[in-house]
């Protein structure tokens, strides 16, 4: 279900700015926030571009709300996925991490996706602007009015999502058996899965994921619940499981298959 936050007024579109100007005059939104209550995830997005040059800023929390993805989509062509260093500034607070740059499904747009532990984004509540800077790729500042209301809506959506998928100790206590992988999750990974963009820079990390398993034992979504800080490791953790892993559904007290979740951690380290 999509719900437009009518109280958040749209502000007229401003001209594209140079990096030096961006700090003084952030890019303004052209439409209201749209909060999307999906079956497997929640998101809030807002348009900042024009019909000729679309630009979208979005926030997507993990189902448990421990991680927040910041996503930018814009018209551009990318030949291959890239991992890049990025600094995201919320108000006056800079946060350094990595982002994944990849082509969108339409092949005409690119997506810049970066993940943060939710605790690091507490400043969003009072922030009026967000700046995203990655060398030679992007340096944009966005006005983000109404973030307090947006985050409140995302939190409400996440609560509904948890209830829908039987997330949490109380929900799992009523199950006869939890959702489970057919084989140990680590067995689906091999040395060949280590992302080149992390391997060549000797990057290691630990990614915690939450898997949403439906009544048929199908993996409906994989979300990062604790980021390693290395974008390619987080992405590959879910990519491998989506492509290879097989699951059994949760079973309730009456013996019926129901929705369930699996929490797991993927450790990425160099072989000795």
What's the structural blueprint in terms of helices and strands?
Layout: E1 2-4, H1 19-22, E2 34-37, E3 42-47, E4 55-61, E5 67-75, E6 82-90, E7 93-103, E8 109-117, E9 129-134, E10 138-143, H2 147-164, H3 169-173, E11 175-177, E12 180-181, H4 196-199, E13 205-213, E14 219-226, H5 231-244, E15 247-248, E16 250-252, E17 257-258, E18 260-268
Antiparallel strand pairs: 1-2, 2-3, 3-4, 4-5, 5-8, 6-7, 6-9, 7-8, 9-10, 11-16, 12-15, 13-14, 13-18, 16-17
Biggest sheet: strands, sense, closure? 10 strands, antiparallel
| CATH architectural designation of the largest domain | Sandwich
Assign the CATH class of the largest domain: Mainly Beta
How many H/I helices?
A: 5
- Give the SSE order as H and E letters: EHEEEEEEEEEHHEEHEEHEEEE
Number of domains: 2
Determine the structural class based on helices, strands and strand pairing: alpha+beta
Q: Give the low-confidence spans.
A: 1-22
End-to-end gap: 49 Å
Rg calculated over all Cα atoms: 19 Å
């Amino acid at each position: 279900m999509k719900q437009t936050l009518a109280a958040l007024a749209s502000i007229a579109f401003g001209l594209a700015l140079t990096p030096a100007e961006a700090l003084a005059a952030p890019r303004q939104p052209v439409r209201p926030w749209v909060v999307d209550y999906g079956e497997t995830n929640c998101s809030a997005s807002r348009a900042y571009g024009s019909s000729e040059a679309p630009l979208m800023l979005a926030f997507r929390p993990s189902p448990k709300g421990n991680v927040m993805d910041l996503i930018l989509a814009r018209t551009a062509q990318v030949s291959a996925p890239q991992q890049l260093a990025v600094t995201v500034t919320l108000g006056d607070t800079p946060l350094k991490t990595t982002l994944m740059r990849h082509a969108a499904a339409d092949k005409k747009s690119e997506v810049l996706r970066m993940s943060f532990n939710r605790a690091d984004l507490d400043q969003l509540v009072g922030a009026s602007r967000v700046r995203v800077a990655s060398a030679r790729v992007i340096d944009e500042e966005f006005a983000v009015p109404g973030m307090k209301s947006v985050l409140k809506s995302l939190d409400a959506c996440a609560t509904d999502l948890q209830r829908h998928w039987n997330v949490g100790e109380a929900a799992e206590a009523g199950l006869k058996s939890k959702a489970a992988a057919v084989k140990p999750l680590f067995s689906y990974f091999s040395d060949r899965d280590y992302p080149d963009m992390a391997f060549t820079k000797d990057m290691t990390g630990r990614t915690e994921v939450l898997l949403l398993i439906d009544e048929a034992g199908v993996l409906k979504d994989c979300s990062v619940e604790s980021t390693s800080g290395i974008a390619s490791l987080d992405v590959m953790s879910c990519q491998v499981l989506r492509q290879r892993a097989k699951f059994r559904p949760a079973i309730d007290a009456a013996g019926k298959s129901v929705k369930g979740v699996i929490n797991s951690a993927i450790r990425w380290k160099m072989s000795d």
